[in-house]
């Protein structure tokens, strides 16, 4: 069994591209990781890692060895999880990254219900809008909206998010109600993610360049600005649900609203996921299967 010492540390270094990230992932010291990997290289009689002052990379032998070792370790971890799942014991800490009102208002309560069903589980939910590094930051999965460009991540569709354009009654009384997306060029628009709004014009996508006096990447701030009459806002329907129901905002251009984008569950592209993450992802997907804005 001594021949297997250092395998877990080596795989963690290879996946995290560094000793610090591997130590953080494994919950041990950097010196321990370095020592275990060095001993593994000595036993094998071959250098697995090319070390420089700036980065760590796999040698040719290290790449081949990693590809075989990761499957071995994933299989062992999977076996451990299957034993745990048979006993229905979900434990440990589930770390989730989510940004925006959809994650706050709709995803978080579902995860709270999931936590209630598993009393030995701790859930940490971070609402920072930055892009996360799953290895360095230790997240199990993230909730993201829109187009996904990272091919190294696995994405599961959570919900479709059709769009809605709104304005306050006072704004419309003062500036008039637009009848066509092209009319937005004569209006103040509240800009969130970008200043090109995509509408559906008789089945054809039409992009309209807009401008205005308020811009924010925070959906709550956009809603507040619209309620205070600073202009017309255009975001997923759920962002305006309460304000529209209470009459603080009025829908406009309804026949031109775009289909919007999707919210996704994204996680690191690897064969093994902890049981708690797999069950939580399945729970979310099932909950939102028939969800509508």
UniProtKB/TrEMBL annotation:
<protein>
    <submittedName>
        <fullName>DNA-binding transcriptional LysR family regulator</fullName>
    </submittedName>
</protein>
<dbReference type="InterPro" id="IPR036390">
    <property type="entry name" value="WH_DNA-bd_sf"/>
</dbReference>
<dbReference type="Pfam" id="PF03466">
    <property type="entry name" value="LysR_substrate"/>
</dbReference>
<dbReference type="Pfam" id="PF00126">
    <property type="entry name" value="HTH_1"/>
</dbReference>
<keyword id="KW-0238">DNA-binding</keyword>
<dbReference type="GO" id="GO:0003677">
    <property type="term" value="F:DNA binding"/>
</dbReference>
<comment type="similarity">
    <text>Belongs to the LysR transcriptional regulatory family.</text>
</comment>
<dbReference type="InterPro" id="IPR005119">
    <property type="entry name" value="LysR_subst-bd"/>
</dbReference>
<dbReference type="InterPro" id="IPR058163">
    <property type="entry name" value="LysR-type_TF_proteobact-type"/>
</dbReference>
<keyword id="KW-0805">Transcription regulation</keyword>
<dbReference type="InterPro" id="IPR036388">
    <property type="entry name" value="WH-like_DNA-bd_sf"/>
</dbReference>
<feature type="domain" description="HTH lysR-type">
    <location>
        <begin position="1"/>
        <end position="59"/>
    </location>
</feature>
<keyword id="KW-0804">Transcription</keyword>
<dbReference type="InterPro" id="IPR000847">
    <property type="entry name" value="LysR_HTH_N"/>
</dbReference>
